[in-house]
Amino acid sequence: MTRKTILNATHRAAGAKMVDFGGWDMPLNYGSQIEEHHAVRRDAGMFDVSHMTVVDLRGTRCREFLRHLLANDIGKLKKSGKALYSCMLNERGGVIDDLITYFLTETASQGRLAREAGASATAEAKASPDMRRTRRAESAQESADSAKEWFRMVVNAATRDKDLAWIEKQAVAFDVKVTERPELAMIAVQGPNARSKVLGLLHADDRERVEKLGRFAAAEARGPDGMSLFVARTGYTGEDGFEIIVPEPHAATLWNALAAAGVHPAGLGARDTLRLEAGMNLYGQDMDEDITPWEAGLAWTVSLDEGRNFIGRAALEKQKAEGASRELIGVVLDDKGVLRHGQRVLTNAGEGEILSGIFSPTLGKAIAFARVPAGAPENLRVDIRGRQLPLRAVKYPFVRDGKGCAGI
Amino acid sequence: MGFPAPSKDTNMSEIPGDLKFQKSHEWARVEDAGQVRIGISDHAQGLLGDLVYVELPNVGDRVEAGTGCAVVESVKAASDVYAPVSGEVVAVNEMLADKPETINEDAYGDGWLLLVKADNAEEMDALLGPDDYAELIENDES
Predict the structure, then answer these.
(1) Is B23 part of the contact surface with chain A (CB cutoff 8 Å)?
(2) What are the domain boundaries of chain B?
(3) CB under 8 Å to A1, separation ≥6 — which residues?
(4) Average pLDDT, stretch A58-62?
(5) Beta-sheet strands, E only, within A172-299
């Protein structure tokens, strides 16, 4: 059965071409994917990303749980509101999903969303004598500090079921309460003018605080008509902007207010070309459960900090010591043509394949991630319908600040 | 800037009356001296989305009816174009190398793909007329 976000009717009324994406009926484009791409690079665009799964995590041992669950170190999050990108691995070091985790606290500076969720966590604790016993076992000081902490994860839509099952299974040993938040919608507003357009819609008292948010940080704020928003300075396009979590009943009002402020609706097609230009991986295409972060260009997200026994660590250390046999590289096709997922790549050291591949609207030529034998192989070629065309290996991101990077 | 939206309600009045169609959405127009001009329909370009690359045969190549004679690639996918008639390629639309979006803008005019000297113009009789094609795509959408 196809699922619909709360904005489905809004997309259809705008004439969107809809497609199935991971079981969700989502807008591919609203006319021209390339125009939507340029709107994000040059001005401001918005994406309905309500299909993504929001999961709240609570419990006195939540931080300890996340140190076990994630390949990146949650200990890097010291200030409330900060976010961390990480892989969640299986025991073989394969990627179950990539996700963002926000560290949040319930303090006076936090708004209604946190208090609401805090109330429900208290109710859970009342309902669970086991959890209470565990909490009593903690030292009084630690309990007082950590009880204020909570974490919010945003995971991929297509991997929702297996992610929740895995997180819940691992959470048991840590008495962490896992709560999916399907009643929350999410709108990503991205582009050089995205932040100023969003700020203009916020309650005057919240503007300065949200304007000062650093990259990869989030805060609560009031939007049009005082609606509760969770505003994060994150995204999947390489542009500045916000990802805004909003309760479903207010999502259409926020969407329409953004449109009135001159933010262009953009579909999944533009989202894909924007994120690849920015050098960002897509789960399922660039990595999966049989691919480790070393093989997916995600080594920068793995923290082999001392004494932290996260799931998959042993397998990663073994592969690191032996040396991974394949690697992910960025490639450019200087000839005319389009690089696409699954095309065969030939090198002097053996075969590889195109992972994510697109025609880049910003660069006017095809770019891709390719998985090839490790060790920077030479004489790269791609087989397109039986013809071999030369590929050029490049450092990515391919595009930054709206322009092609040097050497691309 | 200024690509058209995929035409959601293509109707007969938008399809030139002198065209014939294949179910696979290619159009063919008989021109002077048994030459047949070939392209893809406006409906097809709408389904494909923004075109970014077109692979055309060489002048002098032979094409066979019902087999691939060109490839059009959009932001979304690569699609084979099947020749509506057999014959020899006498011209290709070289402008498409730099401006493939011309197909989005004018599928039945400036966005043509190739011109073929047909072996047997009677092959055209098997193709769909504009009314039948309009009906086909209407059923496609419902």
Answers:
(1) no
(2) 21-141
(3) A23
(4) 96
(5) 177-180, 184-190, 218-222, 228-232, 241-247, 264-265
- B97 contacts in A (CB within 8 Å)? 336
Q: Do B73 and A32 touch (CB under 8 A)?
A: no
Which of B75, B81, B140 to mutate to test binding with chain A, by most A CBs within 10 Å of its CB?
Answer: B75
Q: Which of B71, B101, B104 sits opposite A385 (nearest CB)?
A: B71
CATH of the domain spanning A325-404 = 2.40.30.110
Lookup result for tokens 């006498």: B90
Tokens of A19: 């497609």
CA dist., res. B27 & res. A202, Å (int): 52
Give the number of other CB atoms < 10 A from CB of residue A92.
14
pLDDT digits (tens, 9 = 90+) for A242-277: 999 999 999 999 999 999 999 999 999 999 999 999
Counting DSSP H helices and E strands in chain A, the numbers are 12, 21
CB-based contact, A31 to chain B, within 8 Å: yes
Report residue A208 as tokens: 């300065």
Write down the architecture of domain B21-141 according to CATH: Beta Barrel (2.40)
Give the start-to-end residue ranges of the domains of chain A.
Answer: 325-404
User: Closest Cα of chain B to A57: distance in Å?
Assistant: 37
- B51 CA to centre of own chain: 13
Query: Which residues 43-62 of chain B have a CB within 8 Å of chain A?
Result: 49-50, 52-53, 55
B1/A38 CB distance under 8 A: yes
Q: What is the pLDDT of residues A114-160, one digit of tens each?
A: 444 444 444 444 444 444 444 443 344 444 444 489 999 999 999 99
pLDDT in tens, B116-140: 999 998 888 899 999 999 999 988 7
Instruction: Please state the rounded mean pLDDT for residues A204-232.
Output: 97
Can you tell me whether residue A74 is helix, strand or coil? helix
Which among A400, A404, A365, A364 has a CA at the least distance from the CA of A382?
A365
**Nearest CB to B5 within list A31, A338, A358:** A31
Q: Do the Cβ atoms of A338 and B78 come within 8 Å?
A: yes
